């Protein structure tokens, strides 16, 4: 059946800001789908509040709205653009929920917009717990004994009847928000009441606990004619009980026989058929490890994290095919883009093993609970491909960039037997290493299996790795041993450590004996058909099949940014992809290396060649030895790529763009000071130290408060403001828990206005698209600050200085390409706090709001073009007609126990943009986009530190004027009352009820302003208040600047008059 | 112990011996299924062949003897990337290597099976030798390898005596050319009384037993080697008895009706082959194992029309005989291993038998 020609203009909804549970995978899916639609001549209208995405580029869609994802905004866009169709299944749960609301309200029908792809009835059947259960019962597909409850009592009744433990899953939430396993009535009370509140429809599913069963997923695709296939199945190494997003996953399944494999496959097809899905769908199963008994856990009637993984694991582009299906094509009419010869109506055959390991943010949130449950905690993931499981696991471990190169790492050998045992019972992000240590200590695999229920097959593979460690440590090196170690993907670095040699010696031995990596193709068909898609992975002991033909063009190696983590998110993928496109534009052959399955950069049709590999020197060298690129670009792949600079130079590959020594000069305190001196640019006084003694001396010399941080880190990791000697001692201890190769920086802390610029330098001229100003004062990480473009509160003199300093620094550091500078403006003086001669988090944002494609310009400058040649006038560009405000978005509610107060260390996971003609409207949009939709109850709690009390007064007065009832802790209340603002005094938590916690838990307040005392807040009260506020869905602000911005936004709130802006016209 | 795979084109792969250490010359074919290795090893259609598994980890879930598609294995050799030493599955009774030893299958592991598969794809199916003799002389073994041909395969794999699976539904005569167990089981599960006949049973004997339908099974080798069977099928065709045929049975029925078969370059062996039902337009995933195919445009138009094609290469996957209660398919609706999407064809066959029976009564 050909495409449906009545579809001409389609609205695609994105997934909004990156939060835990909804990450870059939807940018990948959305981008692929938009390109697939445009290929068919469809006009694409895109809406997504997240400016860091590739899908919000004007090259990807025809009309681009970076607007808050709310039904009101969508209605406005639909009224304005009049699309004939809406495609809601590509933007994750967020998009699906919005489309459902529009449909249920009758708006879509009224405006003659049809939902294409999967229908709203189908979505309802799959998403509504009760409807889903009924559907499954109808076709005889088993679900775990369960009941949909809308009241706490209902939950208790179920547990009484079926016994504890029970699992609680709220309806319509993403990443399992608010879910959990309750072992007793108290836990059930806590989890279920939270879940009921978080669910959009006030429903939770309470079900029989099937923990310990195998968790298996099937990715299924169906067209509107009933043809359906499974793209692949995946087995979670962690049994049911750990969210699949937090599980280590292998594809295809390893421990299922054909009988089980086909049983579940047939079930998945029956389900997708009954639900009448048109597009992609994910079905999750629990499979009893001791029988054929299984139950359906859930169905996602849309593309998902798992479908992104399945696409990358097989080469089958699920989102692309789903988009074509939505247009009416049948599966056998859609070409398999990988082989170019076969069609989308087939099931990929893998001839390799794929392993995914999540990336968790526990290095950022040291107080957060690391236990993995049904609430997802990971921010991102890595994937690896190898011919054997051991190798795939080893490659994935080093792809996580934790400086871990084998299972024998860290202090696990120091644990007592008791501690180790305790550790084994606690399933958290460190379980692989604990299992390995347990094996080393002589635990049998059966004993370990009895504790964690991980299948013996996987435990045996871990044991193989431990055995190899032992062999390397004890046996003399031989060619056979080396071959075997490399077959299992032990990196040279680990072999060197185990064999007490240098890495260079190991490498030399390998090369002497011709033990080198070979590359294989991912072709969807296990070599059955000839394929041309250049998607490769490495392995040892095999024939290389990558053909490196005669070089016709210059070849550039672009290094990607690895897994999404706090501080290094999707924006670096945006930069990598755009630089690939720019190089291709300049006639280069492009090669990209990356290991993140969620991203656009790892789509096989972005670069000329894709190597899905860990980003370590050894892995990159394997590629370099084969490809001999003319140069490598590191400035777009975040810290991941920058870290590889030295290694790549040693391989004899020139770095395109800013040179390594200049990157170093920006990081190295002394070299940088020299440059500043030469350029006559001031910076806050500071020094470098190694020991706590030195730190104390330096801090006292500079005078408190001081900023203390390790060098060469991203996202301000480990950065703190110290106000006294005690803080210094504490922070130094924390920093020195990991070995520091570089000195620690101590700077005088100036509490001024923070300003940020991104610039491009062609070696001579500098282009500055705009100046961004942060709402929060210095001291809060730039990634966590609300950022305004163009800057609103700078004098012309200051602006001139910023332009001048930027140009001087770009030249002083010999920048070729991008640079990002952060300044502090303090009493009309401009101080430099940090220069990064590379792409930054704000690059996509500033590119979109100014319409200046700075990655493209930077890439072209790198290959020798000048800014003028590219048609731009150097210097600070004219301000845009719009105000664009970037608002950070956090995922605190997902991370139990994480400290939520903002400081110099970045904590946000994503961002949204508010763009409008006026500052107030832009600000309002940015808050709405970030999900801060106030007021609700018009009651708030204020509890601020002494230093902030004066400043709170006018802000509180404004809230009061808006109708807010203010509760405040004793001294804060006194201050407000003193100033004529009515405030209700509440007790400290320790002083008994009624206190702040009671109000929060009762859901009475919608806002908490809590500024912690300087330095690390040690007050238990503050922490409890903030955590409970976050966990009950109450907005909690920890900076008065943010609070002032919020009240400004509320004073100007008017949804009726809200404008929507197509940024493709900027 | 070292083992070698020597291909007819002179390529030599070195690996490690698994299973039997006997020397074996056979046809080398590859299968892309990711699960179902035991079913493949016991599929009689592989008689005279060595199977390369493209999925690199084989034997992960061990051996469950219940899953065998025949009590014997007729596979000569088995070529894998890595065989599992520690299988894990609740039904696993043995390691796969033990099975290879017990059934005297010469195996080799540690081979770059992807490179081998690409070679077989590019050059077409080739003969090869698996040996543990390190001192082989290539010039001496190559002529022997090249000369090898699968012969008398059907005779070797077919049952020697007829057996009956009781049932109170339709009476089906199953011609065993090397039938996979699940064909009989699929019919039996649907209530049929299945009588399994040796391949060379005369048409007269079958007809005399007065079956409600005849099932022609899969089987090994070149269909054109089965001249005498084809002659019997002509007689069965002439009756009014409903016939359903799978794989070799499908090819033989086509040959009996004037069509031709040809050897494919590398065949279809795997669990992901898309077949399109030309009547409904629906595409199904199917399990396949064949190196020969009914040649395009050789089916006389007045005898049969093509009912299924392969969605990848458009080769013939099924025939519907005009004016007859006969339909045949190239693929394996009985699955085992592979997708169960086309199991409805057994229901179709039963319906056909019932309608026919009602009409006759």
Automatic annotation (TrEMBL), chain A:
Mn(2+) 4 binds at residues 834, 836. Mg(2+) 2 binds at residues 298, 300. GO terms for molecular function: ATP binding; carbamoyl-phosphate synthase (ammonia) activity; carbamoyl-phosphate synthase (glutamine-hydrolyzing) activity; metal ion binding. Mn(2+) 3 binds at residues 822, 834. The keyword Protein biosynthesis does not apply. Binds 4 Mg(2+) or Mn(2+) ions per subunit. Residues 932-1066 form the MGS-like domain. Mn(2+) 2 binds at residues 298, 300. Signal peptide: none annotated. ATP 1 binds at residues 129, 169, 175-176, 208, 210, 215, 241-243, 284, 298. One of its GO terms (cellular component) is cytoplasm. Large subunit of the glutamine-dependent carbamoyl phosphate synthetase (CPSase). CPSase catalyzes the formation of carbamoyl phosphate from the ammonia moiety of glutamine, carbonate, and phosphate donated by ATP, constituting the first step of 2 biosynthetic pathways, one leading to arginine and/or urea and the other to pyrimidine nucleotides. This is Carbamoyl phosphate synthase large chain.
